[in-house]
Write a structure and sequence with these properties.
Blueprint lengths: L2 E5 L3 E5 L8 E3 L2 E10 L2 E2 L4 E3 L4 E7 L5 E7 L7 E3 L8 E3 L5 E5 L4 E5 L4 E6 L5 E6 L3 E5 L6 E4 L2 E4 L10 E4 L5 E5 L2 E5 L7 E4 L4 E4 L5 E5 L4 E6 L4 E8 L4 E6 L5 E5 L4 E16 L4 E5 L6
Antiparallel strand pairs: 1-29, 2-28, 3-4, 3-25, 4-28, 5-7, 6-7, 7-8, 8-9, 10-11, 11-12, 12-13, 14-15, 15-16, 16-17, 18-19, 19-20, 20-21, 22-23, 23-24, 24-25, 26-27, 27-28
């Protein structure tokens, strides 16, 4: 049995099956990664139109040209489509209508997946950093405090969050807002008058098809989710390698994410092989490489 001496992380992923590659271990099940797109520099949010299962994202090529792109996730031969707005950063999707909102260098545009058309929307004197859609459009402005929303084609601010610089946010199935500010996770519950600290650990945030909150701790590559019964964050599992950021769930609840190191977008798919997470101390140890399948 081959053994090597390596430095390991506090969380070690061990696959119990030698025939399947295990790139992630969630709830004791191995997941392999399928490459969707590679070789480019990604920035801003990614989003999935779950009506058509199409991925929306922005990338920059090797000549520093900007592209706003869409990619069919389940086509036999995925074809990249480029939208007419070069630079984009924030994006959000109305899952009921399929309308895709995305920000340019200034302002917000709307892409209609039925007519395949892109039209200007609003706020063309403003740089938008983040967007989410939950019954209405929510957004943040670049280097400005607060979370804003659009209702009846009018933008307004959420008074309770006016003092926070928001680095990431999501809205869950109860219309509670989870957001990162100054490397701290806050929760603003619907009906309350102020946000409260929920965790002192900064996460990358996303929601699944049922609007359950998931959280990624990028330094340890650990995936967590919100346990609504116990009102706490619980561990789901870990990614085997890479630098995970900007994760979303597709129509079938498959996790899609950007890898900052490899400059690729991946989709995780279950192999239905078993795996375990072994907690160990940060020290030199002999690791059985036949069980390390990253």
């Amino acid at each position: 049995m081959n053994k090597i001496l390596i430095w390991i992380l506090p969380l070690l992923l061990c696959c119990q099956c030698t025939q399947e590659i295990c790139h992630a271990c969630f709830h004791g099940t191995c997941f392999s990664k399928r490459k969707l797109f590679e070789g480019k520099q990604f920035s801003g949010q990614i989003a999935v139109d779950r009506m058509d299962n199409v991925l929306h994202f922005h990338y920059k090529d090797y000549r520093s040209n900007d592209y706003t792109a869409i990619l069919d996730l389940y086509s036999d031969s995925p074809k990249l489509e480029i939208l007419p707005v070069d630079y984009s950063f924030a994006r959000a999707i109305n899952t009921k209508t399929g309308e895709v909102y995305f920000s340019g260098a200034k302002g917000i545009y709307v892409y209609n997946s039925v007519t395949k058309s892109t039209v200007p929307y609003m706020l063309f004197n403003t740089t938008i950093s983040l967007m989410q859609f939950k019954d209405k459009l929510y957004y943040t402005e670049f280097r400005r405090e607060g979370i804003y929303f659009v209702e009846n084609n009018r933008a307004d601010a959420m008074e309770a969050l006016a003092d926070y610089i928001v680095d990431d946010f999501v809205i869950d199935k109860f219309n509670n807002i989870y957001f990162i500010s100054d490397y701290i996770l806050f929760r603003y519950k619907k009906g309350e008058h102020k946000a409260k600290i929920f965790s002192n650990i900064p996460y990358s945030l996303t929601t699944d098809t049922k609007d359950n909150v998931y959280l990624i701790e990028t330094t340890t590559r650990t995936l967590f989710k919100m346990d609504y019964v116990r009102d706490r964050i619980t561990e789901v599992g870990i990614f085997g390698s890479g630098s995970v950021f900007n994760a979303v769930f597709d129509k079938y609840n498959n996790l899609i994410y950007c890898d900052a190191v490899e400059e690729r977008i991946y989709m995780l798919l279950p192999t239905f092989s078993n795996c375990t997470i072994v907690k160990r101390k940060r020290k030199k140890e002999n690791i059985n490489v036949s069980k390390m399948m990253f």
